[in-house]
Amino acid sequence: GQQVQQSPASLVLQEGENAELQCNFSTSLNSMQWFYQRPGGSLVSLFYNPSGTKHSGRLTSTTVIKERRSSLHISSSQTTDSGTYLCALGRNNRIFFGDGTQLVVKP
Amino acid sequence: GPKVLQIPSHQIIDMGQMVTLNCDPVSNHLYFYWYKQILGQQMEFLVNFYNGKVMEKSKLFKDQFSVERPDGSYFTLKIQPTALEDSAVYFCASSPSTGGEQYFGPGTRLTVL
């Protein structure tokens, strides 16, 4: 079955709004990573965050292991934030990816 | 930050031919990985590799697939012979330790005709 579930599957925002992307997992983990996947397919690493909270500019990632969830918060969204966001659970030396959240930010 | 390079970025090949995808991992990393993403679908693990050996492979890693890293050169994924369903983007990754952060390359888009 699916070890990593992302929600929502898609999200449409007006520029300036905030976004909260969720990742729930059904197993234990060694690591948690968040990626942005460009329309062309290449990956941009956003966070390596196996536990706790990390910040990077307008992005915040929080992983709560005992609740088996991780979130990515985007504040003051911009049109350039549009794309696919992937969470990736690392376990037993392999990564399990979620299906992604497709974000569209309208001007 | 550390970068993983992949060569070529695109490859078009006729079904039945052999193809080799090349990955230049981060220089001091010891663990290497290949992932496959069919257009519009989820990214999926293929194989991991350490100390000259495959440690683990998924059911997607068919008998026609092989990996190697001879003498610290490129980490390669070879498919021989290729099939239509091998068309996908293949991502290489490396990490300094087991269970640690994985660094991904930009992917090689393989089209099998």
Beta-strand residue fraction of chain A: over 45%
Q: What is the helix tally of chain B?
A: 0
Most extensive interface, chain pair and sizes: A-B, 21 and 26 residues
Q: So how many helices of chain A? A: 0
Q: How large is the radius of gyration of chain A?
A: 13 Å
Biggest sheet record of chain A: 6 strands, mixed
Low-pLDDT stretches of chain B:
none
Structure report:
- The complex is a heterodimer of chains A (107) and B (113).
- Chain A is mainly beta and 107 residues long.
- Chain A is 0% helix and 61% strand.
- Chain A has strands spanning 4-7, 10-14, 19-25, 31-37, 43-48, 52-56, 59-64, 69-74, 83-91, 94-97, 101-106.
- In chain A, strands 2, 4, 5, 9, 10 and 11 form a six-stranded mixed β-sheet that branches. A five-stranded antiparallel β-sheet of chain A has the order 1-3-8-7-6, with no helix packed on it.
- In chain A, β7 (59-64) and β8 (69-74) form a beta hairpin.
- The termini of chain A are far apart.
- The mean pLDDT of chain A is 93.
- Chain B is mostly beta strands.
- In chain B, 0% of the residues lie in helices and 50% in strands.
- In chain B, β5 and β6 (53-57) form a beta hairpin.
- Chain B is globular, with a radius of gyration of 13 Å.
- In chain B, 35% of the residues are buried.
- The mean pLDDT of chain B is 95.
- Chains A and B meet through β4, β5, β9 and β10 of A and β4, β5, β9 and β10 of B.
List the SSEs and their pairings.
The complex is a heterodimer of chains A (107) and B (113).
Chain A: E1 4-7, E2 10-14, E3 19-25, E4 31-37, E5 43-48, E6 52-56, E7 59-64, E8 69-74, E9 83-91, E10 94-97, E11 101-106
Parallel strand pairs in A: 2-11
Antiparallel strand pairs in A: 1-3, 3-8, 4-5, 4-9, 6-7, 7-8, 9-10, 9-11
Chain B: E1 5-7, E2 10-13, E3 19-24, E4 31-37, E5 43-50, E6 53-57, E7 65-68, E8 75-79, E9 88-95, E10 103-104, E11 108-112
